[in-house]
Amino acid sequence: MEDKRNQKQPVSMKKSTWRSILGKKWAFPAIYIGTAAIILAFVMWYQGSLLNQATKTPQQIDKVTVVNGENKPATVHENEEAVAVNNTTPTLAWPVAKEVMYEIGMGFFNEEANADEQSKSLVKFNDSFVPHTGIDLISTNGKGFDVAAAGDGKVMKVYNDQLVGNLVEIEHANKLVSVYQSLEKATVKENDEVKQGQIIGTAGRNVFEKDAKAHLHFEVRMDGNSVDPHKFLKEAQPQ
């Protein structure tokens, strides 16, 4: 019996030793610092392994390509320059038949223009004012006239709108789109291939600009947004 008691005594001494250590004021701070040191050492080792991995060649890293200074992709500015060189925007002709004498009516609403200029490009409709998203071309005799395609392209839409009358949309190179509204009639159909100067309809009147004479409302769109047609039209303007 005494031998068995003596065998259990070392365990009691170990427990007593741990209680004695934990009872010291410095015990828990020391344990905390030691644990933090172990964690910090692990983090430093992990970061070092990542750095070594990044310095390997693309062949050494499975499914990951590391680009260096020689094969780095172009910056945003370099991409923009490439697009500018490759995207040659077509020049559009004034969209009227050659024999027609015409003038510009209401112009394009420019958000950067002063208030006086902007007021001249607002359409009054249902007691409100709407920015004019194109330019109006009016014959000098006030009558309807033949409307011509502003450039080579494909007819994407032909339909009648209750507000703007018959409408034709033509897509040109680089997704540039020309829009012809307020047509009395259209002489082309969807998917037709047209050439610059080809007659596509006759100008008339519409409900949206009911106070205007027979005219062509002409728009140019890029990425679905209306832009000032003057930026794309040839320099020669109506007299």
Automatic annotation (TrEMBL):
Pfam families attached to this UniProt entry: Peptidase_M23 (PF01551)
Which residues does the UniProt record annotate as the domain M23ase beta-sheet core?
131-229
InterPro entries referenced in this protein's UniProt entry, alphabetically: Cell_wall_metabolism_enzyme, Dup_hybrid_motif, M23ase_b-sheet_dom
Query: Has UniProt tagged this entry with the keyword Transmembrane?
Result: yes
Q: Which UniProt keywords apply?
A: Membrane, Transmembrane, Transmembrane helix
Q: Which residues cross the membrane?
A: 26-46
From the Swiss-Prot or TrEMBL record, what is one GO molecular function term? metalloendopeptidase activity
**Xref: CDD domains:** M23_peptidase
In Swiss-Prot or TrEMBL terms, this protein is called Peptidase M23
